[in-house]
Specification:
The chain is built from 3 helices and no strands. The protein has about 70 residues and is mainly α. The longest helix is centred in the last third of the chain and has 26 residues. The chain is elongated.
């Protein structure tokens, strides 16, 4: 279970970081016609990045305690 949690945390952190720090999501939303939503992305992406980073840290701590 810890490996799944760790994988989820790392995957989510990478995806959220890519969407936060690169214009990938803004371009995709522009292509689909949802460019009006781009202004609100920071309200979703930054908390998502924080949550996934916390999940990753939590999984690392649980893994370290077991070994």
């Amino acid at each position: 279970m810890n490996d799944r949690l760790l994988k989820l945390g790392i995957f989510g952190t990478v995806i959220a970081a890519l969407c936060c720090f690169t214009p990938i999501l803004a371009v995709l939303f522009g292509i689909v016609g949802l460019s009006a939503v781009v202004g609100y992305l920071d309200y979703v992406l930054l908390p998502a990045l924080a949550v996934f980073a916390l999940i990753t840290i939590y999984a690392f701590i649980r893994r370290a305690r077991k070994t």
